[in-house]
């Protein structure tokens, strides 16, 4: 028996030699964990109650409302992308239950299409993560995850109904049932909105047109605890959405529309014992992204099929942990704009990580190597040393970062460039953390410096009008990210304050002709400052909060985007009767009715309201 | 004396005869276009050659296209070949559409090659509707209240046989700079442009300038259309065909630069790869007659030279 187990271990270790860890790594900095919650996301691994705030918020709204994170939003229901620490949207990897879901064709994720369903968490790990999370994680990882809890038999039925400004309404039904060996969570949701808000255009007030948005979907998370050592998990995410593309301020009208469909299925097997842990994932996703503008006779129908498999093995002995992992991704992209109508991207990725605890020191060393179609990524090492002293901890990290070109950057006609090199460079971080739970005080700050070469940029070719993906320049980014929070509790109430400040300098190091960027210029759409201040009051049945966000001015393509404030207020009230809880929520976004833009020529809404009723039936 | 007078009159008529490039000789069916996909590098009509650069890999073009497109209502680049009048000048079918990337060039050719007298010009539908209504990238001219002093003009420069004239003729395709809103306009009718101010024009370069531009250059689509381009012919008896000059380039193979030695003055050069794909287009030759090729990948290239006397020549070189 011992021989048999040893053989299995040996085979597994070979199979997973040189691989990587994701959520199992301990060193990640979870700066913000948001969920549909009234809590302020802060600090590392904060546990948050999951309760919807304002209808069915998307991940972009959630992050921009409750943290100092820069979300490039093109408007209500429109494209929203995440920029971390002065990076571009394609430099942050997005995962769902450890499955990378960053669009392999576009190289980015539209956060407006990620609804934050009940019981789901969105975690934000800032900092270089190419080694731990593969290509595209240059500046961090946003992971969508639903925790599974096995407990005594608990059943929850929840219905959310809401109505908001600009024709928004929607509903969400959730059933959550768990036992000692099983867990089931099913959410079905629908929301739609006209988003036909008024905005200022010159001296005129106009109403936005063709900005409607609708989204319908189902998410399923189920777990089965076969025995103490083995667990199976199944995740399903089906979704359809449709949105109008509203006119820019330079357009008089737009009839463009976009439809997105996704089907994602994932199975996970976890085996654990006191010596090792083995996790294997198998996933398939099928996604469509169709854009049509009848006005200019343009259609762009794109889709991809993605198969994903990974296995992770962790050994524990004494104060050391060895993690190995491999990932296998096979993607077929279909587009009329590809020369061969379909293109294939194969990625094999391997990772090895060693962690060792020595008194107050914790050392993490990791290596990663990828083999992929049309790119030869370098080996990316990572080294981190953490020192813990009572309530304080600090760490330094050095890592190599890279991002391989996307399918569109390689194959799109016209402009795709099969000879593109991956973006690559080095990242350095210094973290200082303080947490004193009895006093409810927490402090986190990070300083970073990153230089990325072969920055991929779509730019006009010299003497041709064609835009092509080129390795043009180098960019140096540095700054700091600080959060501090204080919670005060008494028997009947609690209060929480938070302040977050994020400074990002991201400068071009090599002069560019098109677009015209001088050496030393701050990159476009990269504000220097993002700040967030929040306050929460919890009087048991009544909860309220206010958020204030500030974003400094940013350089645009045609004009600078002015600095702006965004303020949000919400209040909840519970009426509890036996096993039933009625919660009435009222939210005001853009409380001060500020006229602002995030992207030039893209109007943003003024003050808006959402009224929501939640009926929850709970039985233990 | 009478005989002498008659001969003189005949000779004068022959000397002042004109040829018009109206692009009808391409015999294009209605709503079609030629965008250089045959790799010819340009279009010849009358005594005119219009230069074109076509990218076979990406099915894209710049320079000139020949069109009989009639679509005056579809905005956007999918309708990039159409003229806003729905046809050529004077109710003709065919016309030439320019997509100006930096500059578009034409020059006179053929046995009767002479000087360019003038041509008709109009806005392309893509540019016109963009200025009229705005689009996702470019503004509506005049702005929301119509008071923005926007403009979109064509700068035409002559390149005579013997010298380059840096004076330019400015033609406004749209002009909203007037204090009187009634004077604001976006051209939508064929309008004649006389090149009388130039002398001995045998090569013209066209550049577009707009008030609406950003980091990526012009936001206004860089398109316009021309038709019925008239050249004054030279008398055949007096035309001396320019001999193709002998050229010598060295070093060849090269790693840094090539030097050109020719019997005629070189006006422009372009470089294409062995498949005909343009790498460098229509650059002015410097005084040293040297071309820096250090940024080119190793391989075989074709150097195209255009001379002041109107002749052209090609030769191969190897970049190490």
Task: Describe this entry's structure for a reader.
The complex is a heterodimer of chains A (620) and B (320). Chain A is mainly beta and 620 residues long. Chain A is built from four helices and 31 strands. Helix content of chain A is 5%, strand content 57%. In chain A, the strands form four sheets. Chain A has a 22-stranded antiparallel β-barrel. Chain A has a five-stranded mixed beta sheet with strand order 1-6-7-4-5, with helices on one face. A two-stranded antiparallel sheet of chain A has the order 2-3. The longest helix of chain A has 14 residues, at 2-15. The model of chain A is unreliable at 1-53 (pLDDT under 50). Chain B is built from two helices and 23 strands. In chain B, strands 1, 2, 3, 4, 5, 6, 7, 8, 9, 10, 11, 12, 13 and 16 form a 14-stranded antiparallel beta sheet that branches. Chain A binds chain B through residues 201-204, 247-248, 250-254, 293, 295-298, 339, 413-415, 459-460, 462-466, 514-517, 524, 556-559, and chain B through 53, 55, 57-60, 62, 74-79, 99, 101-102, 133-140, 143-145, 212-217, 219, 222, 278, 280-283.
């Amino acid at each position: 028996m011992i021989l048999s187990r040893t053989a299995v271990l040996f085979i597994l270790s070979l199979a997973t030699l040189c691989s990587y860890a994701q959520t199992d790594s301990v060193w990640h900095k979870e700066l913000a964990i948001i969920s549909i919650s009234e809590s302020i996301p802060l600090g590392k691994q904060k546990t948050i109650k999951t309760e919807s705030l304002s209808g069915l918020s998307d991940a972009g709204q959630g992050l921009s409302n409750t943290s100092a994170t820069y979300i490039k939003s093109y408007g209500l229901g429109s494209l929203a992308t995440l920029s971390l620490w002065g990076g571009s949207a394609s430099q942050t990897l997005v995962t769902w239950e450890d499955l990378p879901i960053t669009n392999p064709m576009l190289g980015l994720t539209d956060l407006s299409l990620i609804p934050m369903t009940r019981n789901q968490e969105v975690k934000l790990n800032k900092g270089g993560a190419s080694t731990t999370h593969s290509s595209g994680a240059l500046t961090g990882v946003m992971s969508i995850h639903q925790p599974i809890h096995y407990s005594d038999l608990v059943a929850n039925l929840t219905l959310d109904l809401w109505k908001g400004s600009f024709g928004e309404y929607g509903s969400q039904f959730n059933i959550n049932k768990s036992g000692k060996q099983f867990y089931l969570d099913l959410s079905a949701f629908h929301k739609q909105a006209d988003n036909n808000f008024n905005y200022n255009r010159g001296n005129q007030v106009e109403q936005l047109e063709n900005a409607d948005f609708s989204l319908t979907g189902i998410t399923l998370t189920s777990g089965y605890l076969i025995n103490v050592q083995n667990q199976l998990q199944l995740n399903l995410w089906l979704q359809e959405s449709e949105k109008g593309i509203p006119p820019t301020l330079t357009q008089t009208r737009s009839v463009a529309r976009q439809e997105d469909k996704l089907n994602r299925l994932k199975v996970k097997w976890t085996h654990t014992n006191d010596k090792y842990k083995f996790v294997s994932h198998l996933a398939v996703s099928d996604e469509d992204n169709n854009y049509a503008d009848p006005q200019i006779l343009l259609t762009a129908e794109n889709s991809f099929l993605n198969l994903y498999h990974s296995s992770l093995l962790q050994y524990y002995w004494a104060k050391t942990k060895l993690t190995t992992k491999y990932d296998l991704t096979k993607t077929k992209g279909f587009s009329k704009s590809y020369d061969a109508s379909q293109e294939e991207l194969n990625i094999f990725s391997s990772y090895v990580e060693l962690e060792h605890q020595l008194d107050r020191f914790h050392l993490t060393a990791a290596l990663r190597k990828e083999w992929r179609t049309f790119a030869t990524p370098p080996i990316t090492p990572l080294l981190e040393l953490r020192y813990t002293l009572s309530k304080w901890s600090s760490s330094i990290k050095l890592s190599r970062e890279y991002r391989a070109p996307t399918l569109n950057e390689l194959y799109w006609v016209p402009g795709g460039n099969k000879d593109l090199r991956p973006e690559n460079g080095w990242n350095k971080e210094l973290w200082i953390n303080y947490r004193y739970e009895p006093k409810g005080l927490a402090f986190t700050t990070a300083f970073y410096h990153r230089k990325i070469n072969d920055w991929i940029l779509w730019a006009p070719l010299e003497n041709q009008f064609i835009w092509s993906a080129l390795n043009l320049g180098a960019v140096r980014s540095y700054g700091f990210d600080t959060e501090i929070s204080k919670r005060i509790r008494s028997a009947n109430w609690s209060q929480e304050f938070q302040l977050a400040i994020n400074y990002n300098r991201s400068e071009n190091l090599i002069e560019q002709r098109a677009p015209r960027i001088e050496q030393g210029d701050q990159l476009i759409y990269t504000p220097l400052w993002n700040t967030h201040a929040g306050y929460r009051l919890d009087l048991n049945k009544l909860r309220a909060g206010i958020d204030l966000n500030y974003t400094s001015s940013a350089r645009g393509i045609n004009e600078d985007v002015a600095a702006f404030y965004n303020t949000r207020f919400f209040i909840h009230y519970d009426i509890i009767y036996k096993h039933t809880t009625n919660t009435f929520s009222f939210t005001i976004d853009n409380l001060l009715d500020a006229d602002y833009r995030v992207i030039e020529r893209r109007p943003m809404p003024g003050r808006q309201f959402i009224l929501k009723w939640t009926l929850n039936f709970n039985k233990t | 004396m009478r005989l002498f007078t008659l001969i003189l009159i005949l000779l004068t008529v022959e000397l002042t005869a004109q040829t018009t490039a109206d692009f009808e000789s391409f015999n294009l069916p209605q709503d079609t276009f030629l965008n250089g996909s045959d790799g010819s590098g340009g279009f010849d009509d009358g005594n005119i050659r219009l230069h074109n650069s076509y990218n076979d890999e990406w099915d894209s073009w710049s320079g000139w296209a020949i069109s009989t497109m009639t679509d005056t209502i579809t905005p956007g680049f999918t309708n990039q070949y159409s003229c806003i009048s729905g046809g050529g000048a004077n109710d003709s079918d065919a016309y030439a559409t320019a997509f100006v990337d930096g500059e578009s060039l034409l020059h006179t050719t053929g046995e009767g090659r002479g000087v360019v007298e003038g041509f008709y010009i109009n806005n392309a539908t893509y540019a016109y509707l963009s200025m009229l209504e705005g689009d996702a990238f470019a503004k509506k001219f005049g702005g929301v209240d119509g008071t923005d002093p926007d403009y979109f003009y064509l700068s035409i420069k002559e390149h005579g046989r013997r010298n380059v004239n840096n004076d330019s003729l400015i033609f406004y395709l749209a002009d909203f700079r007037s204090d009187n809103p009634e004077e604001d306009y976006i051209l939508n009718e064929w309008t004649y442009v006389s090149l009388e101010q130039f002398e001995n024009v045998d090569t013209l370069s066209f550049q577009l300038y707009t008030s609406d531009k950003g980091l990526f250059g012009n936001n206004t689509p860089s398109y316009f259309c021309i038709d019925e381009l008239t050249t004054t012919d030279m008398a055949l008896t007096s035309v001396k065909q320019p001999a193709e000059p002998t050229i010598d380039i060295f070093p060849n193979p090269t790693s840094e630069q090539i030097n050109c030695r020719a019997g005629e003055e070189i006006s422009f050069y372009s470089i294409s790869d062995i498949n005909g794909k343009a790498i460098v287009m229509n650059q002015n030759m410097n005084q040293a007659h040297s071309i820096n090729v250090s940024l080119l990948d190793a391989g075989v290239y074709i150097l195209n030279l255009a001379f002041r006397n109107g002749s052209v020549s090609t030769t191969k070189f190897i970049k190490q």
